[in-house]
Amino acid sequence: MEKLLKVGPSPHIYTPDDTSILMQDVIIALMPALAAGVYIFGYRAAVITLISVLSAVIFEHLWNIALKKKSTIGDLSAVVSGILLAFNLPATVPFWIPLVGSFFMIIIVKMCFGGLGQNFLNPALGARAFLSASWPALMTSFAKPFAKLMPILSPDVVTSATPLGILKEKAGEALPTYMDLFIGNVGGCIGETSKIALLAGLVYLLVRHVITWHTPVTFVGTVALLSWIFGDKGYFSGDWLFHILSGGLFLGAFFMATDYSTTPITKNGRVVFGVGCGILTVIIRLAGGYPEGVSYSILLMNTAFPLIERVTAPRRFGKGGLKMRDYVRLGGILFLIAAVVALALALGNKFTQDRIKAREFEEAAKSQQKVFDGVGKIVVNSGATLEVKEGTSVTSLTMYELDTGITVYAAECSPKGYKSDIKMTVGIDENLKVTGVSITDASGETTGLGTRVTEPEFIGQFVGKTKDITINGTAPNENGIDAITGATVSSKAVTAGVNDALKAVEEAL
Hints:
By secondary structure, the protein is an alpha+beta fold. The chain has 17 helices and nine strands. The chain has helices at residues 19-41, 43-66, 77-87, 96-110, 123-134, 136-139, 163-169, 178-183, 195-207, 214-229, 240-245, 249-256, 267-287, 294-312, 324-368, 456-459, 488-508, and strands spanning 230-231, 234-235, 384-386, 394-401, 407-413, 423-429, 434-441, 470-471, 480-481. The protein has a five-stranded antiparallel beta sheet. A two-stranded antiparallel ribbon has the order 1-2. α1 runs antiparallel to α2 and α13 runs parallel beside α15. It is elongated. The termini are far apart.
């Protein structure tokens, strides 16, 4: 009988799967999002991803060599982390950013705590938080979709606000459509914009049983519910669909909130983890100064997951399941975390709001100075935002004092061009005369024709003109300008933008 019964330690069920096979599945699931990122942002996105992956693998291998340990790069976890780090970076970052991020991700967040399975934070998100805190300007400069960035970044690359950034700032810029959000025709990080590609990866992971539905569904569902309840126009008025299709929610919920090492393994624990991430994401998005909250919500819940795991762990046979006090305890943990985050955000906003606004005015003044170069320099801290009526191409209007003692106005306009809106700044003096025009984006116009509206010879015609500017016909007039040959639509669009700016200033006076 002793020869027939051999009792060994668990697990007693054999599976051929190991870490490398699971990571292969994750890599495959990430490929649609990578392909979409390269298609949307150009070859530079592929180069950044390659640098991130290679450096992550090299740093992990060098660590093992330095400590005379067996190499762990064969489990492919460094490859997955490298891809996810790249997915959390804008396509405009310098190439040294993924290098520094990979070092922090692998050495500090992962290997210093013992390697795969021992780290308590998601490595890619830990690196993103470090990079965002260290170089915020680089980490928040997002390329315009389909800009087709080449590996060598052009100094005049056109940047674009993210959908959540537009919603947060309420600057008057048109919000993208649901279809644009779904396919990825928006600004953002390399791997977060195309929701259809991320959904394809989710389906693959679920079919392969790499992850379960609990965390992704509860995470996204909580964000949808709370963003609908706490709408900016009152309770139960929020655009929940816009919120779940914007930012990095799908990327975080599908690929980072499901990380084996830093999230619960019990089903109940995964539900609690997803709900907690959703609550924190909405708090940060609606109450914080930062438009996105997915990364920080997951990192905060990473620190809480041991408590969640402890409370939701299965009871021994005969001990029964979860009791009411266990659920109360879980609710108390989530409430405490949410309360601390909300308090920190409220205090942070209180003490930094004025400074942030002053910095924004300063940056705006620097970019708008070029339309006043012929009449004077903007006096620091002299800006004041004026109200703009709806129904025109003017998105913002700012009044400045110049060092020459005159008052001027800078109008940001987005008139409809040949294929898309033309972004432009118009400078106007106190006598309602144009001081200068600057075209910041005419990428939707025909190359070699409509794009010539940016040339000094064309925009220089507006200087000194007053309201009701027209396009010259056969008989030129004093308040008219000459259109660009073959680009009448683009010329009329710029003229309309200047006229809208003059009208906005006149109404504001």
